[in-house]
Amino acid sequence: MYSGEKKSIVYVLGLYLSSTLLLIVTLFTSYYFYEQDQLIHNEKEILKSYAAKVEEKLSLLHEENGEKLQYPRFENFKSAIYDIDKNLIFSTLDISIQNLDKTFFTKNSKSYLISPLSPYYMGAAYIVVQKETKDINILSDLIYLAIIVMFITIITSFFLVNLVLRPIRENIKLLDNFIKDTTHELNTPITAILTNIETIDSSNCDEKTLRKLERIKIASLSISNLYEDLVYLLLNHKTSLQNVDLNLSQIVFQRVKYFANMANMKKIEFLLDIKNSVHFTADKQKMERLIDNILSNAIKYTNKATKIRITLDERYLSIEDEGKGMSKEELEKIFTRYLRFDKTQGGFGLGYSIIKSITEEYDMKIDIDSKPNKGTKVTLTW
To answer: Does the pLDDT value for residue 225 go beyond 60?
Structure first.
């Protein structure tokens, strides 16, 4: 799975799951408050019926008007009566009500309703009724249901993402197959061209012919370098590592010599500051791929008649050019495979992708300092 594909999956899943989670939270929260409102409404209706019962009993007591009157009591609720000045007349409540301005409130798992009374039976102007509050037990059920819904959503989202990415994967597969076929066809002609150029006796050629041969050789080297990138890209996961103690100083010198003709065509001068006998344990082909890609990019994107500075020390390698440079936005996407910022230059956009994979394999740190129209400096540390 390519890094771009992984990012696409993460972005799509993140967007899908976050929007789904937001929808679930909104729906469940709305449902929870709806149930709470319904509960309060039901509580009020029940308390109103209780207040009506108290009023009925008070009416009967008022009509009896005996010397000894017993305040009515009920099994499923308690009550109290207050006069017009809001002074307590009689109460069976668990608490003392200080404020009669609220018509309904809850306290200590009990619900209270304050209802005005008219006419004033037994001198009472207000009836307060109290009952046990019914708890809302749906929260835990909603959380449990939300977890189940999210689990189902995650599973279905993976299927949806795979379905969306299937055409992209098929196109990438076609591109990989095309690269494999192209790589296979490139091998024979590249080898033939380079071999025949080396066998030509340059002493028998005039200056014009030598320039033509030089151009052919440089073009062949460019194709050869591209061929090596394609081989690495396609076969890297199939080849076994052969890490050995390498003399990086010798390898850098060899790769600079390899690209000398290409640099000379643009009148580019190499400024070398290479410490002798810098050693590193790695696969030789991979280190050559790493250095070749940085060097070829430096030559390809730098200006004519400029300098490329190459510094090698015990702990780092830096290659700095005086080329067109890159913007901050381009640097953020520099390691994306197949991405090319300059369509006028050749290549498939593989160089920095290969550089990144090799540096990660050998725990190297790569820093790219680039400014438009000033140049780029690539530094590897280990």
So the answer is: yes
